[in-house]
Amino acid sequence: MFYTVLLGGQLTWNIPLVVGLICIAVLYSFIVKRDTRIPLTRLQPLLFFLGLVLLYLATGSPLSTISHLSFSLHMIQMSLLYFIVPPFILLGIPEPIFKQIYKLPMIKKGSKRLLRPKTALYIFATLFLMYHLPFALDILSQNAFIQNGYLFLLFLLSFSIWWPITSPDLKQRLHGKQMKRYVFRSGLLLMPACVFFMLTALTDGMNNPFLTQITSQLCIPSGNGSLQLLPPPFNTEYDQLMAGIFMLGIHKFGIMLSLRLGNKMQG
Question: Which residues lie below 8 Å from residue 195, measured CB to CB, with a gap of 6+?
Answer without folding.
Answer: 244
